[in-house]
Amino acid sequence: MSTSLTEFKDASTIAQKKPEEFWGKIAQQFQWKKPWTKVLDYDFLKPEVKWFLEGKLNITENCLDRHLSTQPDKTAILFEPNNPDEPSQHISYKELHQRVCQTANMLIANGAKKGDRICIYMPMVPELAISVLACARIGAIHSVVFAGFSVKALSARMNDASCNMLLTSDGGYRGAKTIALKEIADEALLSCPSVNCCIVFQRTNQNVAWNPIDKWWHEEIEKVGSDCPATEMDSEDPLFVLYTSGSTGKPKGLVHSCGGYMVYTAYTFKNVFQYTDNDVYWCTADIGWITGHSYIIYGPLANGATSMMFEGVPSYPDYDRFWEVCAKHKVNQFYTAPTAIRALQKHPTSLVEKHDLSSLKVLGSVGEPINDEAWHWYDKNIGKHKCPIVDTWWQTETGGILISSLAGVTPQKPTYATLPMPGIQAALLDNEGNELEGENEGILAIKQPWPSIARTIYGDHERYRQVYFSAYPGYYYPGDGALRDAEGNYRITGRIDDVVIVSGHNLGTAPIENALNEHPNVVESAVVGFPHDVKGNALQAFVIARTTADDIVILKNELRALVSKTIGPIAKPDRVQVVSGLPKTRSGKIMRRILRKLAAGEYDQLGDVSTLLNPEVVEEIKRQNN
Ligand code: WT7
Q: Which atom from ligand 1 is nearest to the alpha carbon of 365?
């Protein structure tokens, strides 16, 4: 671990000059069943990336078995339930190992095997993390779908990867609400013929319908023992698929591999958060997102850390829940999203001051750019000006953090993710793909592979190439813009494609448009993001209705409900505007740039609209809004 600026600089130099030596040395700290023969092989044009070639391992041996002799009784997962009156759970490494092995045996007993795709659609309970690790134990590829997603989003993901099995629960708690997960799963399964077994964990004890493929978790687990050898995996075997939105309607299932992902998430966890032995670390993300995969489960457990899992929401029972939990468990590292900070910042600081936050050492931010106001509020009220803030920039595709400061080791700068991690060669490009030097603003690109880069899009390698490697050949193209200061610090300015980050959730506008277009009254629609003070961005849908709907209010509500049902409540547009036309180029392409300006109310920045096919609709939209 780099604990001084000099060590960090040395690490960066070696990683840049001799990446194979650098990563090979780090990888040696793990348990391999068979050593690798070559550290790295890659060609960004194909694209093909391989790390630790021919190395054999099982990631769960590194996350669990390895710690049994040194710290069996240390808490691996600290579970804090939604309801503050329900006791928290301290699951030790020994117990977690035992429960993962038993769950793995339950999967095997129900027909699961290496290479199968197992969908996990569960609330934030320990069994979610246990399911993930149980899949990894037997070499089944887990595909976790965030429990806030609805029927079609779930079925599309299960079908895309032809999942064999689904792990779900009767329901889930979310603040004062209960979510009927099994009901959503049942409806999704109607169109998922590949799934032939559905194991249901009991969380809420609500009534559920029962189908021939359903099994109760608590009954199945009773039937098996807890001795389960770890399946030998090739370093490049897939570990999991995780979906992220793209600029077409079809979600992209990013595939991560075993060896490189383990090495990189473990390395970045330790270095960025400067985790030391008895720390309690809390990442508030959901395991349904990459942040939860890499920095609740794999990264922390590979380091033998205590990782907290929180089932609830920041606002329940009150807006001080985060701070209450930090105080209760004496949290040392706290990692959350700017949208949560902005939401909590609206409430009186007395809600923070009520709690003893003196255990905090490091604060983290992830998911979207953190604005200056939120940064300073976080620094002052939560960190009391004593905790470094790590603003970590990365993506589902990158598997782990690529740009961030190391807490208390490298300099921080408000609103800047700061410096690339050792081994990450970031560049800024202009539109033609020329590299920009020094202090500048441009398109962010990465020159060399790092161990946890996604290897492909499940079932569609060509799409993987097109989306990430074709715009600027020879680089990985993440789809973000950035600026760089004279010291080489990066500030991420936001997406430069049709993805909008709403409350830290990455949403493609295309699938939302597809959902809207399914309404019988909708002819065409276009969805864009506009700035929002809490969510960062919110969505506005422009829709052309088939008839002048008698009651526009009803139509708007139906459309919002439709999106919620199809994709999930997070994708619901804040505004729906019924229009008679959408601004189009003469070739018929919707001019989203103009819609974005209209949604933001920036009427003076529309640019020249006279070349449009239908400039009159721009005037109409402006008139409607005045
Ligand atoms: C997109 C990736 C990283 C895990 C959670 C989101 C944005 C992420 C930051 C940050 C500015 C950020 C980018 C990126 N983003 N972290 N610290 N500063 N922007 O993963 O859903 O794959 O979204 O989130 O736009 O491309 P994701």
A: 17
| CA dist., res. 507 & res. 499, Å (int) | 6
Distance 130 CA to ligand 1 centre (A): 26
284 CB within 6 A, ligand 1: no
Pairwise CA distance, residues 568 & 152, whole Å: 9
Write out the two tokens for 535: 């969510």
Buried b (16+ CB within 10 A) or exposed e, 293-311: bbbbbbbbbbbbbbbbbbb
Q: How far apart are CA 510 and CA 248, in angstroms?
A: 5
CB of residue 311 inside a 6 A radius of ligand 1: no
214 token code pair? 């359903």
Beta carbons within 8 Å of 587's beta carbon, 6+ residues apart = none
For the beta sheet containing 238-244, the strands, ordered from the edge strand earlier in sequence to the opposite edge, are: 214-216, 197-201, 165-169, 117-121, 141-144, 238-244, 252-257, 456-457
**What is the C-alpha to C-alpha distance for residues 194 and 164, in angstroms, rounded to an integer?**
6
Residue 148, pLDDT score: 93
Q: What is the distance, to the nearest Å, from the Cα of residue 568 to the centroid of all Cα atoms in its chain?
A: 16
For 597-614, what is each residue's pLDDT tens digit?
A: 999 999 988 887 877 889
Cβ 492 under 6 angstroms from ligand 1: yes
pLDDT digits (tens, 9 = 90+) for 264-301: 999 999 999 999 999 999 999 999 999 999 999 999 99
How far apart CA 599 and CA 536 sit, in angstroms, is: 14
Answer for the pair 27, 40: CB distance below 8 angstroms, yes or no. Answer: no
Query: 499-625 maps to which CATH number?
Result: 3.30.300.30
* Residue 343, pLDDT score: 92
Q: Ligand 1 pocket test: which of 269, 290, 395 has the largest number of ligand atoms within 8 Å of its C-beta? A: 395
| Sole residue written with tokens 């609330």 | 123
Q: Is the CB of 251 under 6 A from ligand 1?
A: no
Q: What DSSP assignment string belongs to 4-24? A: SHHHHHHHHHHHHH-HHHHHH
The alpha-carbon radius of gyration of the chain (Å, integer) is 24
Q: For residues 367 and 391, give the distance between their C-alpha atoms in angstroms, rounded to a whole number.
A: 9
List, in sequence order, every residue forming a beta bridge with 41; answer none if it has no partner. 50
This prediction has a pTM of 0.92
List the domain boundaries for the chain.
5-423, 499-625
Q: Does 570 sit in the ligand 1 pocket, CB within 6 Å?
A: no
The rounded Å distance from CA 254 to ligand 1 centre is 15
CATH of 5-423, one of 3.40.50.12780, 2.60.300.12, 3.40.50.10230, 3.40.50.2300: 3.40.50.12780
**Residue 352 parent element (H or E):** helix 350-353
Q: What does the mean pLDDT of the chain come to?
A: 95
Residue 245 Cβ < 6 Å to ligand 1: no
Exposed/middle/buried for 207, CB within 10 Å: 0-12, 13-18, 19+? exposed
